[in-house]
Specification:
685 residues; alpha+beta; seven-stranded mixed sheet; 21 helices; 32% helix
Length: 685
């Protein structure tokens, strides 16, 4: 994981600009790569044009490799990604070095396009090809890594590519529809146009639509919007040579009730039945268990999903320092038998305690002046309470953390992580809650001040309760660090204003604000241990890899809008909605989440968006993945619920979907009349 940027400037107009100094002072990109930084200048070969390249590295694989990385031919790579498959990476090799070697093998555009098409994993990159004087750049098809561009409005402005916003310049997220190439060899004289050529992904559509990218008029409208007539940028598209990396096609087979097999499945999944099945619906857990035993097809599909998802989790756990893929299967947890977990010994009812440092509305680690510098310098030593020391100093640190709401997505990922890691390895579970206003006591003369019960209840939001419920179903032999991340209103307002809003940008809705802030505090991993021997102690997670459950709802019909579409248009409407969800995921969520999480010098990894997982789920007919005739807590993400039950997560398997903004109670914390799609004024303050 890295923070990367490239500035293409007019040298004569920018003679006084020290881009290295400017970027360090006016961006948050350096926080993404705390291990090493480097910058270099590249002569474009065109009069008046110069490239400034800068990289900040978060070291997770092989030898620490500074970026930009340049070979002896002058080819230069900035790489923000992970290669989990497609190209062979030795255990001690760095994927940046391997990718540069592959890209430099030939200057033929086909080589670059086919090489990038092989890469499995999240990525954003910039590659300077010295021989052709071309700057290549782009993002993976899901947009799992942030890449923004600033499009100049006149010939004096620079063209900028960056992981995050720089200064107060306007940026946009680069559409994840293919690979872009800026041809400097086409620029013949000073002040000429910059020509950006798109090699579209095969059969790609514009995010949020089903409009084909190769439609020339839509292409011009999409990339040409917002630019002035004086802009030096010109866009073109290759209609012959395309990026051979298509999105997996969704299986659109409809439920065929004339088929005996399909009729049996329909009967099994239909809640409008009489007799014993109707009684089982009243007990959702028994219904799921009955489904496993009575429907062989969905049981086998669940086993296949567990298998492919576990491989995705394992790849994302072990590709980091201190954890290498074990070749001896006897030492791996892959073959742990499927057992139902007994209640976790660490999950006994947690006693109430008063976090007195929070009574003033301040988090112990947050000073009044929350500048970028104060955030950067904040460490575990500042998490020390008056009578307790931080447990991060006393025992082995966890190498893996999970954004853990206790919902089905995060719980399944956690159960699979438990299978992959030796039991001696602790795992951090980061659970965020925003302070709730307590109603005054009705007893005469009574007050909630200094009341430990009332203090604890301020943080008992839905995700905190479901988090403990799911924790009780996990392996009792592992040390789980359940981190209570408690956020007061003053701290939220301060850090959003000074910091988080710049990371959410260029997104700007109320929903972006709520999710962005919730994920930022959760990913920081700073709070109080809520379970086990160290319960009540301040704790800061030092894990650099964070597993996230994003991507499950889009593929398995987990949102309420899926029910609405199904209610109005049946199975065909649901299929169309899910297909649209997958095409727009790159424009909605993941670039924002990458900017938010990596701001802590940590890397987000999304097992549900592993290429093999997406391929598998796309191949499964919709009526096996979800049946929205069934009530909430069963019908949405039905296949994943069966997986959860098979993993021993019986209570968790029937929890209804609850978005993080509602589960953490950040939504409507400051304005209960807002709509999720409204522009958020707080992000503009």
């Amino acid at each position: 994981m890295c923070g990367i940027c490239c500035v293409c400037s007019n040298v004569q107009d920018d003679q006084t600009v020290d881009w290295k100094d400017f970027i360090e002072k006016h961006s948050r990109i350096g926080r993404r790569g705390p291990d090493c930084s480097r910058s270099t200048q590249v002569e474009s070969g065109c009069k008046g044009r110069q490239l400034f390249l800068q990289g900040h590295v978060l070291h997770l694989r092989g030898e620490l490799t500074p970026q930009p990385l340049q070979d002896h031919h002058g080819n230069t790579l900035l790489w923000n990604g992970e290669i989990f498959g497609g190209l062979e990476i030795g255990e001690e090799e760095n994927d940046t070095e391997v990718l540069l070697r592959e890209l430099s093998a030939s200057a033929d555009p086909c080589n670059l396009l086919t090489t990038m098409a092989k890469v499995q994993g999240p990525w954003a990159f910039m590659y300077w090809e010295e021989k052709t004087k071309c700057l290549w750049f782009g993002r993976d098809m899901f947009g799992r890594r942030s890449l923004l561009w600033h499009l100049p409005q006149n010939r004096k402005e620079p063209f900028i590519l960056s992981s995050t916003q720089i200064g107060d310049k306007e940026f946009q997220e680069i559409p994840s529809v293919g690979i872009y190439c800026l041809h400097f060899s086409d620029i013949q004289s000073e002040g000429c146009d910059l020509n950006i050529h798109l090699y579209p992904r095969e059969e790609s559509v514009w995010p949020g639509t089903l409009d084909k990218v190769d439609n020339s008029q839509i292409f011009k409208d999409r990339l040409g919007s917002g630019r002035s007539e004086n802009s030096p940028l010109k866009f073109s598209m290759d209609t012959d040579l395309k990026f051979p990396s298509p999105m997996p096609k969704l299986n659109k087979a409809l439920l065929n009730t004339d088929s005996d097999l399909e009729k049996k499945v329909s009967d099994d999944l239909d809640h409008k039945v009489s007799g014993s099945n109707a009684e089982l619906i009243d007990d959702h857990q028994k219904y799921i268990e009955n489904l496993i035993h009575s429907n062989e097809v969905i049981g086998k599909l669940a086993d296949q999903l567990i298998d492919v998802l576990q491989r995705a989790v394992k790849k994302r756990i072990y590709n980091q320092p201190g954890l290498s893929l074990m070749t001896d299967v006897q030492n791996s947890a892959d073959c742990l038998p499927d057992v139902k977990r007994s209640p976790c010994s660490q999950c006994k009812p947690h006693p109430v305690f008063s976090n007195k440092t929070n009574e003033s509305g301040k988090n112990p680690s947050t000073d009044e002046d929350t500048s970028t510098e104060s955030i950067s310098s904040r460490g575990e030593e500042e998490c020390v309470a008056e009578t307790k020391t931080s447990v991060t100093c006393e025992q082995e640190n966890a190498k893996v953390a999970i954004l853990f709401s206790g919902g089905i997505d995060s719980a399944v990922i956690t159960a699979l992580a438990d299978r992959c890691l030796p039991e001696s390895e602790p795992i951090d579970l980061m659970n965020v809650a925003f302070e709730q206003q307590m109603k005054p006591s009705r007893k005469k003369g009574a007050s909630n001040m200094n009341d430990p019960v009332a203090d604890e209840q301020r943080w008992n939001v839905p995700d905190r309760l479901t988090g403990y419920s799911a924790l009780a179903e996990l392996n009792p032999r592992r040390r789980w660090n359940f981190i209570q991340v408690n956020v007061s209103l003053p701290e939220l307002q301060q850090i959003r204003s000074n910091h988080v809003r710049h990371l959410v940008y260029p997104l700007d809705t109320v929903l972006d604000d709520s999710i962005g802030c919730a994920v930022w505090f959760a990913a920081r991993g700073q709070g109080i241990i809520g379970n086990g021997a160290q319960q009540g102690f301040p704790y800061t997670s030092t894990a650099r890899v964070i597993l996230c459950g994003m991507g499950a709802d889009e593929q398995l019909a987990g949102y309420s809008r899926h029910r609405g579409r199904f209610s109005e248009q049946g199975w065909q409407g649901l299929l169309d909605e899910v297909e649209l969800e997958i095409t727009r995921i790159s424009a909605r969520n993941l670039g924002r989440d990458d900017r938010i999480i990596t701001d802590h010098g940590k890397e987000s990894r999304f097992p549900f968006l592993d290429e093999e997982v997406v391929k598998f789920l796309s191949s499964v007919p919709m009526h096996y993945k979800a049946n929205l005739d069934l009530p909430r807590g069963i019908g949405e993400k039905l296949l994943l619920r069966v997986c959860a039950a098979k993993l021993g997560l019986l209570s968790t398997s029937v929890l209804p979907k609850r978005a993080i903004q509602f589960g953490s109670r950040i939504a409507k914390m400051e304005n209960n009349k807002e709509k999720a799609t409204d522009k958020c004024k707080r992000l503009a303050d």
